[in-house]
Structure formats: structure tokens, C-alpha cells
Amino acid sequence: MPTHSKPRRQPSPVRRKSVSTLRKVRASFLRRDKWWVAWTDDVPGALTQGKTLDEARVNLKDAIRMMLESADFGDLINAKTELVEETLHL
């Protein structure tokens, strides 16, 4: 007699809540060889590059939005996973 197994549920991609308020940040752009490096000290971790200044500007705006959005990990937590939370001492 054949056995029927339930299909495995694939975890949903992480959903992000969008940033609802407009915000101004001070951006820095540095030309290095053929690339423009872009970052802002106002949002730690927002760092990117582009082949043109305009591309670097667009990429930095995307990086900032991603850093400011809060992630919804509910679907990942509810999936069959193992979660480890700990304090790291630097």
C-alpha cells in the first residue's frame, strides 16, 4: 500500500515592513578608480558602490531603505527551524 506524505512547506521569504517616513541623511561619495563608493554615517552599515555617481546614489538609497526596514521573521520562526539567540562579547 503506497504511503502519502505531505509536501514540505517552503519557508516564505523574509517580509519587510516599509519605512513610512521620509528621512534625510548626509551621504558621502568617493571616486576610486572606475567606481564610486557611497556610504552614510547616519545609517551604520549602509555602504555600496556604483560605476557612475548616479548609480552609486541610487544604490545607497536602496541600502539605506533596507537597513531602516524592520524584518518580519514570523514565517521563519514558525517553520521547522532551529533558533539560537545569544549575546556576543566583542
Brief overview, please?
The chain has 90 residues and is α+β, with helices and mostly antiparallel strands. It contains two helices and five strands.
Structural summary, described in words:
It is a single chain. With 90 residues, the protein is α+β, with helices and mostly antiparallel strands. The chain has a domain at 23-78: 2-Layer Sandwich (Double Stranded RNA Binding Domain), CATH 3.30.160. It contains two helices and five strands, in the order ββββαβα. It has helices at residues 53-68, 74-78, and strands at residues 15-17, 28-32, 35-39, 47-50, 70-72. It has a three-stranded antiparallel β-sheet with strand order 2-3-4, with helices on one face. Strands 1-5 form a two-stranded antiparallel sheet. Strand 2 and strand 3 (35-39) form a beta hairpin. The protein is elongated.
Estimated helix fraction: 10-25%
Radius of gyration equals 20 Å
How are strands sequenced across the largest beta sheet?
A: 2-3-4
Beta content comes to 15-25%
Structural class of the helices, strands and pairings? alpha+beta
Determine the CATH topology of the domain at 23-78.
Answer: Double Stranded RNA Binding Domain
What is the CATH domain class of the domain at 23-78?
Alpha Beta
**Largest sheet data:** 3 strands, antiparallel
Q: Secondary-structure element order, as H and E?
A: EEEEHEH
Q: Give the N-to-C terminal Cα separation.
A: 58 Å
Number of strands: 5
Mean pLDDT, rounded to whole units? 79
Count of DSSP H/I helices: 2
Stretches with pLDDT under 50, minimum 5 residues:
14-18
Shape: elongated
The CATH architecture of the domain at 23-78 is: 2-Layer Sandwich
